[in-house]
Write a structure and sequence with these properties.
Elements: E1 35-36, E2 47-51, E3 54-57, E4 65-70, E5 92-100, H1 104-109, E6 118-121, H2 129-132, E7 137-142, E8 148-154, H3 156-167, E9 173-177, E10 180-186, E11 192-197, E12 200-203, E13 205-207, E14 212-216, E15 225-234, E16 239-245, E17 260-261, E18 290-294, H4 296-300, H5 321-332, E19 336-339, E20 343-345, H6 371-379, E21 391-397, H7 409-423, E22 427-432, E23 436-437, H8 448-451, E24 465-466, E25 472-473, H9 479-496, E26 500-503, H10 511-522, H11 526-529, E27 537-540, H12 559-562, E28 568-570, H13 573-579, H14 610-628, E29 636-638, E30 644-646, E31 651-652, E32 655-656, E33 666-669, H15 678-685, H16 693-708, E34 714-717, H17 736-740, H18 759-762, H19 766-773, H20 782-801, H21 810-816, E35 817-818, E36 830-835, E37 838-843, E38 849-852, E39 861-863, H22 865-868, E40 879-881, E41 886-889, E42 893-899
């Protein structure tokens, strides 16, 4: 089961701002399937040709039918053809259909079609299939009352059946052999494909068995721009068109992705000095990984000490404030930097001269003014900022981050970035977005769908493109889209030495596709490929929603289904319990464990009565306990009602809280790029009169600790340890540098009070935001920022140096981790965990608390040396009384005690 439906924070692209951010990080629950209606002039496609033998037709009568097509060998261009009919003057041919039934194998492959009428292709006509697929294809039937009904035909299934077995092994894109390139593109439905190269047109040859078109070039083709000229029936246009389109398997691009480039990524000229012998930091197992999520432009664009603001090369500025901070985190125990999308996107103009910028003195306005957001929004469509969840070419670095977007500088500089991060002690994770494209159909930013229309995008039963992902969804369940995902990831791993991949909306992928990625990476070896693929980590968003929800089309890569695979999914359970409320609350003041629920209540009516708050807080503590175990489904403990339960028996909005089979299946976090930063969430939720910036900083550290000190991997948004704010913006995908940039120098503040956040996603929250942004007490000074960062690094050091935080099995967690004070008498707002020789107390209350573990009386515990000698002198006052086994912890503090 999944949680009750909620609207995801990701929103459809506006007219020119093509794509938004991946707001699903704070989406845990399904929504109703969304889709884009067929464009004007495009027919519905209610029939689906699922393999060479079978057609399924929603709404058809049981009786004879046929597939009609205009044979491409007649030369008919179908220009101006009416929807539902072959081209005027074309030689119409037919494949006869008789009523049939789906086989067990077909029902398993297409479960969402099992209730629709099925037809069998007449064996005498099956030889026409390959020809039919290259024309305008229509399903037709004469109904019982004599009417002729027609509909378009969806063809992915039959394309996979006819071509998939051979095409899946084809080497696509530019492939070099002793300096001589071969260019290959899969276009089985195209009537012709040619290569546009250097101002001339070069014919390409079709392999009828695979549907791949190829041409072998000369050595002097290297470095030249090219496009494919694909003549194909385009349902979105309602006619046959010749598309000039870049290569889906591009390895390099000209500026603004106008042309692909014939480039060999193994060319020594593209390797920065030391690339071949690059020494990486020691690999960290996923279950122990501590990850910083970072947007490339945010990192350096306002760092006055960086020589390359907003660029890949900023990570080579080893003495910049940003790199110094990353090094300090690495030294404390952070192991990976997770980069928000850095592949080629559709939104940002790549040439700096073409980029707009806000034309206002933003710093001159009041902290609660509407003027900043109005000015930033006015430039957003053409500025240099976007999160990057707008895929255009999956396997080329984004050009706007390069010193020169024209040519291969982006390749070299991306590699130098990886070197810089590795040299700082950090391995590199890429955020990859294969679940949707920036556009589909005949849109200029559509690549895949203009080469094989109707194949790469996921279509709904009427032939429209599914958009539950926010944008034009892809179909990794189809052979060649699944192949593209695997091939692209392997290229990033081999050619750019990327150490991990985070899959956006992974639940929209088949589990089999993600496991195929894992298998392909595992096959990479240092000797053969220059990288050890088995050390590359994988994790993603396993949300269950949209047209694929509940395994409707395939077994999804969701939280539940990925358990036991070694591929982690983000866990929303403890996140919501720690922060309070949910990401789409009308009132953002709903509280949780780390935001004062019951123990430091605010005035929000939605929090309920004191009794209701207490009950909810105690349940939140049970959710956090499950999170601390690594979200294990079978972990047994006593809940706050006094019942013996397992993780899977604890309720999370109607779903099991625990779903993991082993530590490492679930990734813990309390904030990420989506929705309000942790500081901003606490600004909304803590009483506005919370006594000091120091208290807010302490609650920030306490919230981060619930993820940092959990079993399994954990992620935090870059700057959270510095109390990072986006001025209460809940969806800053296109909010520009003003709201998004990181401020490494505490003298520049933390970003709070930079004006009301952009109206499009935040205006309904402005009444709550205004008094907060205007309150100078909520803008922390250097002391609070530096203290929070130092305290967080102390927690990282404890995690890194204590093996008990990386237990290898569920059985080990069960035997070594417990919550000894859990039960009916548990203290609201205080959670005590025993882990091997450690005792950890999370005190979220505004008061000093005593936690007595009688079984430990007489045993020699003391505050962990890291905290005893650490920067946080309040935490250093935590104490242990051996005679009674009592642990005393200051207010708003997490304290770790170790047995001596």
């Amino acid at each position: 089961m999944s949680s009750p439906p909620r609207r995801p924070a990701r929103r459809p692209a506006a007219a020119l701002a093509l794509v938004v951010g991946a707001a699903a990080l704070l989406v845990s629950s399904p929504q109703q399937p969304a889709h884009a209606a067929p464009p004007p002039g495009q027919e519905q496609a209610l029939a689906q040709w699922i393999d060479r033998d079978t057609v399924v037709w929603k709404g058809a009568e049981r009786g004879a039918a046929q597939l009609e097509f205009d044979a491409p060998d007649t030369g008919a261009a179908a220009t101006g053809a009416a929807p539902g009919a072959p081209a005027p003057g074309a030689a119409v041919k037919r494949l006869r259909l008789t009523p049939g039934a789906l086989t067990p194998a077909e029902r398993a492959a297409f479960p969402h079609l099992t209730g629709y009428p099925a037809f069998t292709v007449d064996p005498r006509d099956r030889a026409l299939a390959r020809t039919a697929l290259r024309g305008h294809l229509v399903a037709a039937q004469r109904t019982a009352d004599g009417r002729r009904t027609t509909t378009g035909v969806q063809i992915p299934g039959v394309l996979d059946d006819l071509y998939g077995a051979r095409a899946r092994h084809a080497a696509l894109g530019p492939v070099f052999d002793h300096g001589r390139p071969t260019l290959s593109v899969w276009a089985p439905t195209a009537r012709t494909v040619a290569l546009e190269l250097g101002g001339r047109t070069v014919p390409m040859r079709r392999d009828d068995r695979s549907g791949v078109w190829r041409v072998q070039g000369q050595r002097d083709w290297a470095g030249k721009p090219y496009r494919y000229l694909v003549t194909v029936w385009a349902p979105a246009a309602g006619r046959t068109v010749t598309n000039k389109v870049t290569d889906p398997y591009s390895t390099a691009l000209t500026a603004d992705s106008a042309r692909s480039l014939v480039v060999d990524l193994d060319d020594p000229r593209l390797a920065p000095e030391g690339w071949a012998a690059l020494r990486k930091p020691a690999a960290v197992p996923l279950r122990r990984a501590r990850i910083q999520e970072l947007h490339l432009r945010d990192f350096s664009v306002e760092d006055r000490t960086s020589r390359h603001p907003g660029q890949y090369l900023a990570f080579t500025d080893s003495r910049s404030d940003g790199m110094r901070q990353l090094k300090s985190l690495a030294a404390a125990g952070t192991s990976y930097v997770h980069l928000l999308p850095v592949f080629d996107g559709a939104t940002v103009p790549e040439n700096r001269a073409d980029q707009d910028r806000p034309r206002c003195d933003l710093a001159s306005y009041a902290p609660d003014s509407e003027s900043q957001q109005e000015c930033v929004t006015g430039a957003a469509a053409r500025d240099a900022y976007n999160w990057g969840y707008d895929p255009l070419h999956y396997t080329v670095p984004e050009g706007s981050y390069a010193s020169d977007p024209e040519g291969t500088a982006r390749t070299v500089e991306f590699r130098r970035m990886v070197q810089g991060l590795n040299g700082a002690g950090l391995r590199t994770v890429m955020d990859v977005v294969y679940n949707h494209t920036a556009a589909s159909g005949q849109d200029p930013h559509s690549v895949l769908d203009r080469i094989v229309p109707g194949y790469y995008q996921r279509l709904l039963d009427d032939g429209s493109v599914a958009t539950s992902t926010c944008c034009s969804g892809t179909a990794p369940e189809h052979t060649m889209m699944g192949k593209l995902v695997v091939d692209s990831v392997v290229t990033w791993a081999k050619e750019y030495k990327v150490d991990g991949f985070r899959f956006d909306l992974m639940g929209h992928h088949p589990k089999a596709n993600i496991l195929a990625v894992r298998k392909a990476l595992d096959a990479l070896t240092p000797r053969k490929d220059g990288v050890d693929g088995k050390k590359i980590i994988l994790y993603g968003e396993g949300w269950n929603f949209g047209e694929a929800a509940d395994d409707a089309r395939f077994v999804q890569a969701t939280q539940r289904n990925m358990a036991g695979t070694g591929i982690a999914t983000f866990s929303d359970r403890a996140r919501d319990a720690v922060r309070g409320g949910g990401p789409f609350d009308a009132d953002p003041r709903l509280q949780g464990f780390a935001s004062g629920l019951y123990t430091d209540p605010n005035s929000a009516a939605g929090n309920g009565t004191p009794a209701e708050q207490r009950a909810r807080l105690l349940h939140d503590q049970d959710l956090i306990k499950v999170g601390l175990t690594g979200n294990l489904a079978d972990y047994a403990f006593t809940d706050t009602a006094g019942r013996r339960v397992t993780g899977s028996q604890v309720d999370y909005n109607g779903a099991p809280a625990g779903y993991a089979a082993a530590p490492g299946d679930a990734l813990a976090y309390v904030d990420a790029h989506d929705n309000e930063t942790l500081y901003d969430a606490l600004a909304y939720k803590l009483p506005q009169g919370t006594s000091s910036a120091a208290d807010r900083a302490r609650m920030q550290v306490l919230a981060l600790a619930t993820a940092t000190l959990s079993q399994g991997p954990a992620l935090s948004q870059a700057g959270s340890d510095l109390l990072r704010s986006k001025s209460l913006d809940r969806n800053s995908f296109n909010s520009g540098d003003w709201f998004n940039a990181l401020h490494w120098n505490c003298a520049d503040g933390n970003g709070f009070g930079r004006g009301l956040p952009p109206a499009a996603d935040n205006k309904d929250k402005w009444p709550y935001a205004r008094p907060l942004l205007a309150d100078p007490a909520l803008r922390p000074g250097c002391a609070a920022i530096q203290d929070a960062s130092a305290a967080y690094r102390d927690l990282l050091r404890i995690h890194a140096t204590e093996p008990a935080f990386a237990l290898p099995t569920a059985a080990a967690v069960q035997s070594q981790l417990s919550f000894p004070l859990s039960g009916k008498d548990e203290t609201p707002g205080v959670l005590t965990m025993r882990l091997a020789d450690l005792v950890i107390v999370f005190n979220a209350t505004p008061h000093r608390q005593d936690q007595t573990l009688g079984d430990l009386a007489g045993r020699p515990y003391a505050l962990h040396p890291v905290q005893a000698r650490g920067a946080d002198r309040t935490t250093a006052t935590a104490s242990y009384t051996a005679a009674s086994g009592t642990f005393t912890v200051p207010a708003r503090t997490v304290a770790v005690f170790r047995k001596g």
